[in-house]
Amino acid sequence: MNELIHPALPFPLAPAGGRHCAFAVDEAGTLTLTGEGRSDLFHDPAGGDYNPDAGFLVGVPPQGDFTLSARVTVPFSAQFDAGVLLIWSDEDHFAKACFELSPHGKPMAVSVVTRRHSDDSNAFTVEDGNTLWLRLTRTGPAWAFHTSADGTRWDMLRYFTLDEPAEARDSVRVGFLAQSPAGDGITVTFAQIAYSEGAPKNLRDGS
Question: Is 132 among the domain residues?
Answer without folding.
Answer: yes
